[in-house]
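[step 3/7] fold_predict: job queued, chain A
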Amino acid sequence: MSGVFPRPLYQIGVTKEVGKKRGTPDISMSAAVDGGAWVYYSFVNPASPWHIFGGTSEASPIFSGIVALAGQVAHHRLGLLNPGLYALGALSQHGVKSTGIVDVTSGNNSFAGVTGFDAGTGYDLASGWGTIDAAKFVPALARLG
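[step 4/7] structure written:
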């Protein structure tokens, strides 16, 4: 939880998990630090232009691209995504299958000897609402945006 920011209104439904502070993450994407995505760019080392990216450097562009697709489907800018994302997460927890939210219920976000949080059903401090099925998430976010 944030040591600075209070819980925003859109997180009122996850008060049990975040208390009075801004909780993160909101959503999780692939961010393997030992696998990742191969990216071609030759300006760093022309002799070896392929590089593996992981972590936030992998997850952020993936999610940004998916949000861009949702904006195209909606035919307008989506603005602040968080209220819609939390609405989709809550709907998903009530059995609505068309949200595109895929709950992550096992694992944790511990890393390099630092104890993190365990994933569980619904919103948690390890994976947020979970990850997404883009084929369902794009139209669902476009409808809310």
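[step 5/7] annotate
The CA atoms of residues 68 and 77 lie 9 Å apart.
The helical segments are 15-18, 56-74, 82-93, 134-144.
exit 0
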